[in-house]
Specification:
alpha+beta, Alpha-Beta Plaits, eight-stranded mixed beta sheet, 38% helix
């Protein structure tokens, strides 16, 4: 029997490590797992410390959400705080990598908020709860724009409107993204101390 999906309001955060393919193109694939445990797991743990849930790892990044499981009304703020915290954690990771003479890392993060479907997808071998919908897809597209703008954290206009009095943002030019008829307005979430 299929479990009914729930319509939930929350904030979605996509994080993608840049140049992941180039990092491991000519290396033992086992090293990618070590990398995932030393970098992605550390970033994911930080998301959890900041009130988020890591929905899934994607190999070179992860999808996280805020407010979906606990109906937290401050999900936009928590998503932005987590993104800023991830920026700081990546800096610490890069300091360690530098002293080990390993290449430093950068990431792109896209944040969007709204209604999503939360439900279970299963086959005879696997069962997974996940978030789906346009908000999730748009967060992924916004993360993709971080490459275009050469920035680390971009938020949607809806995120900006929800927390612009708490955080510092810089408005970016409207940009067309795949799957959207209209251009998307994004805002760079500036480095902020809190």
């Amino acid at each position: 029997m299929t479990e009914k999906a729930l319509r939930k309001e929350g904030t979605i955060l996509f994080c993608d490590i840049r140049n992941f393919t180039n990092l491991f193109e000519k290396r033992d694939p086992v090293e990618a797992v070590k990398f995932a445990n030393s970098v992605l797991a550390v970033l994911g743990e930080d998301v959890e410390k900041n009130g988020g849930v890591v929905d899934r790892f994607t190999g070179d990044g992860f999808l996280a959400h805020f407010g979906i499981l606990n109906d937290d009304q401050n999900h936009i703020e928590k998503g932005c705080r987590a993104a800023i915290s991830l920026r700081n954690v990546l800096q610490q990771i890069n300091t360690q990598r530098y002293f080990k003479v390993e290449s430093v890392l950068s990431f792109g993060i896209g944040i969007h908020t709204g209604n999503v479907a939360y439900g279970k997808i299963e086959t005879p071998q696997i069962s997974q709860h996940t978030v789906l919908g346009d908000v999730v897809n748009t967060a992924s597209r916004i993360e993709g724009l971080t490459n275009f703008f050469a920035l680390d954290i971009l938020a949607s206009e809806k995120v900006y409107k929800g927390v612009h009095e708490i955080f510092n943002f810089k408005k970016m030019p409207v940009k067309k993204v795949k799957g959207k008829k209209e251009g998307v307005q994004t805002y760079w979430l500036l480095p902020t101390n809190f």
